Amino acid sequence: xxxxxxxxxxxxxxxxxxxxxxxxxxxxxxxxxxxxxxxxxxxxxxxxxxxxxxxxxxxxxxxxxxxxxxxxxxxxxxxxxxxxxxxxxxxxxxxxxxxxxxxxxxxxxxxxxxxxxxxxxxxxxxxxxxxxxxxxxxxxxxxxxxxxxxxxxxxxxxxxxxxxxxxxxxxxxxxxxxxxxxxxxxxxxxxxxxxxxxxxxxxxx
Length: 205
Known about the structure:
With 205 residues, the chain is of the alpha/beta class.
């Protein structure tokens, strides 16, 4: 099995990389190491790393023979996207569109997209649930939610057209509590491993 992880040197991505390596996957990582929120980046010496933006056309060749794609790369904090919404649009929307197109072109079997609980804003009570109404209050949540919608388009529209290139996309919504165990898809593929730091995920399928 071969997996590609975008944003794989960051907080969540590094745990995915570690889990995939432990499972015996060949792992390729795309991460431009630009996230200002990280005190450090994490690397696994058994994975292959490319320090490059997901908007760079060069990355298309890295999708060759990839079975699973974990897409976490993003402009991932609210304040920077307020200061530079254009970059958030370029990375989180246009970059995601490129990622989905390459996955389609190269026949990736399954795509996992990392979304955000910021999409639910302040209008919804805690605990948040995936069927709640969106309440996007900043460029970060708007662009990440747009990425979700493009995932749905690629998944649903293309499937309905008979262009079945990959199985349904899984959207992972990041929240703030602890992961205590592996999260698996229906094929038993680990999506997130136990963390080095507290964090949590929920799944939309």
